[in-house]
Amino acid sequence: MKAKILQALRETDGYVSGQQLCEQFQVSRTAVWKAINQLREMGYDIDSVSNKGYCIRSAPDLLNKNELMSLRKTAWIGQRLECFDVIGSTNTTAMQMAEEGAPNGTLVVADRQDSGKGRRGRGWVMPAGIAIAMSIVIKPEELQPGNAPMLTLVSALAVVRAIEEQTGLQPGIKWPNDIVINGKKVCGMLTEMSTQIDYINHIVVGIGINVHNEQFPEELSDRATSLYLESGKHYSRAALVEAVCEYFEHYYEIFMRTQDLSGLKTEYDSFLVNKDRQVRILDPLGEYEGTALGITLRGELLVETPEGVRTVDSGEVSVRGIYGYV
Ligand code: BTN
């Protein structure tokens, strides 16, 4: 009910009458009034004028079900939505839920993450109220397991577009899927998958975005940033989550048409911060340097070296700029 009222207020320029809300949701005036008061207690600034009705002036930055559902415009992501004040890891919970039958598009979001997982066994911990931890369950009917790693690049494109749209900042992608602003990482992603030999049971795309962080631990401060640190502004985390999901649906559909990146390569390359720059490839079989040229249709990075162009697969290696993180 609160989410529906919020949605109605958000979708209207100006005031919505109490009568209209009663009729639309088939509830009494008292029920509407109570819901409005509860929303005010949660921090929503809702103006009321007799004979005109209610108008929303501002919303608090809450990452909860009411807020997310009132903004939801996606077709399939978030149809089932699970929000947590505190969680161990949204990816771990999403993987468990997927195993227990949660449908395609299930979205798990948390305000605080105590034992979040990063790539290569690292952690991704998030205090309350500061950042976004979200995981999307995907149960693709048709996707070949060998093509699934490309989803990581699809997610990167969705996040970079969402950040651009919501903040006006100019994020880029450090191959394969770190999102960076001014050379520092603002978002990391971890894609996990449960498969049989030739069949995907489910995939979980986990996304962590630094939003309001004012500082980072010293060991991270030269390579981590937040949307706040880059702009001096605070953004709605719920609106960012919704934008990521909308863009993800868009790019996922394009990807699934061909199960490769032919429909997305040009756009992806246009955000690639490594492009035409010197990179060091941290390959366990031997490090080397070269110039990053862009991605292949399968999402590998093409690197020009004195010995010729090499194709780098994200599963095996890390890429660094030769003068720093990017
Ligand atoms: C990286 O190392 O760059 C990947 C970080 C991924 C963090 C996100 S936060 C939401 C989701 N849940 C997790 O436990 N990890 C991912």
Structure, described:
With 326 residues, the chain is of the alpha+beta class. Strand 3, helix 5 and strand 4 form a beta-alpha-beta unit. The longest helix is centred in the C-terminal third of the chain and has 22 residues. The mean pLDDT is 94.
Strand order of the largest sheet: 3-4-5-9-8-7-6
Radius of gyration, Cα only, in angstroms?
Answer: 21 Å
Indicate the overall shape.
Answer: elongated
**Percentage of residues in helical conformation:** 25-40%
Mean pLDDT, all residues: 94
How much of the polypeptide forms β-strand, as a percent range? Answer: 25-35%
Largest sheet data? 7 strands, mixed
- Could you name the ranges where pLDDT drops below 50 across 5 or more consecutive residues? none
What is the end-to-end distance?
Answer: 46 Å
Label the structural class.
Answer: alpha+beta
- Name the helix and strand elements from N-terminus to C-terminus, one letter apiece: HHHEEHEHEEHEEEEHHHEEEEE
Hetero groups bound?
A: biotin
